[in-house]
């Protein structure tokens, strides 16, 4: 399904998004019309709309459109909300913005196997915003897969680990979970997992993690709304345990988080 403001979108209306890629989005897993961290997804949309478009977003309208799309799709489903201005003028992007709401759905993934990751130096523009400028991330994901990996892990100019194309990464060392502290998206699933760890007594923190530090880690996992948590088997050939008990606890406790109703 693909709808703009609750009706079928036309190719012409998608022109600005397709040609310029200027917009922002959030993706959420909807199960029985409930979403883990729904309020965090909505807060993200509101804040990113203010940054990129300079206006507020009608969050009640967003909820209505997401509920409409999810109700017409098999449960569970992944619903992506993309906010962009179909009338964006590339020559005058500083004009008054009139962002609209594109809602798309796709099947939710089943249980996914552990990942192998390649490492590449890459930094997203404005990493704190979940924007739709995905050329670089998808390009590097493609190159990683052509090199025999499942996905790609980004490091910055100082070789500090940041994030993946569409996910955060966490590490386990000495019974403690570590998130990279360098520039990266403050993901919804990451924030929910922090709540899980505080509730269950798992030690958690943030630190600069160099690419060379991967060899000192016991385990690693990625986190996003579509997959929840997913173990990492290796990073640039460095093997990691996929049987770490902390990973099983995070997966179980995350799945138990009650969804907020749409």
Automatic annotation (TrEMBL):
Signal peptide: none annotated. One of its GO terms (molecular function) is transaminase activity. It comes from the Bacteria. SUPFAM superfamilies: D-aminoacid aminotransferase-like PLP-dependent enzymes. Keywords: Aminotransferase, Transferase. Belongs to the class-IV pyridoxal-phosphate-dependent aminotransferase family. This is Aminotransferase class IV family protein. It comes from Sphaerisporangium flaviroseum.
């Amino acid at each position: 399904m693909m709808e703009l403001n609750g009706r079928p979108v036309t190719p012409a209306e998608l022109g600005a998004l397709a040609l310029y890629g200027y917009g922002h989005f959030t993706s959420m897993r909807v199960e029985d019309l409930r979403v883990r961290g729904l309020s965090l997804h909505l807060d993200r949309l509101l804040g990113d709309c203010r940054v990129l478009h300079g206006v507020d977003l009608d969050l009640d309208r967003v909820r209505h459109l997401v509920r409409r799309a999810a109700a017409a799709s098999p449960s569970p489903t992944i619903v992506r909300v993309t906010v962009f201005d179909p009338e964006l003028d590339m020559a005058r992007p500083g004009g008054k913005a009139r962002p609209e709401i594109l809602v798309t759905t796709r099947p939710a993934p089943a249980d996914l196997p552990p990942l192998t990751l390649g490492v590449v130096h890459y930094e997203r523009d404005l990493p704190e915003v979940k924007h739709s400028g995905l050329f670089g991330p998808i390009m590097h994901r493609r190159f990683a897969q052509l090199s025999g990996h499942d996905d790609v892990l980004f490091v910055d100019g100082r070789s500090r680990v940041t994030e993946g194309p569409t996910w955060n990464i966490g590490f386990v060392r000495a019974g403690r979970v570590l998130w990279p502290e360098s520039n990266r998206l403050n993901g919804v699933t990451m924030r929910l997992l922090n709540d899980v760890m505080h509730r269950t007594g798992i030690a958690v923190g943030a630190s600069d993690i160099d690419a060379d530090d991967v060899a000192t880690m016991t385990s690693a996992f990625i986190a996003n709304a579509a997959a929840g948590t997913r173990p990492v088997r290796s990073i640039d050939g460095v093997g990691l345990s996929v049987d770490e008990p902390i990973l099983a606890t995070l997966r179980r406790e995350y799945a138990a988080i009650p969804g907020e109703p749409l």
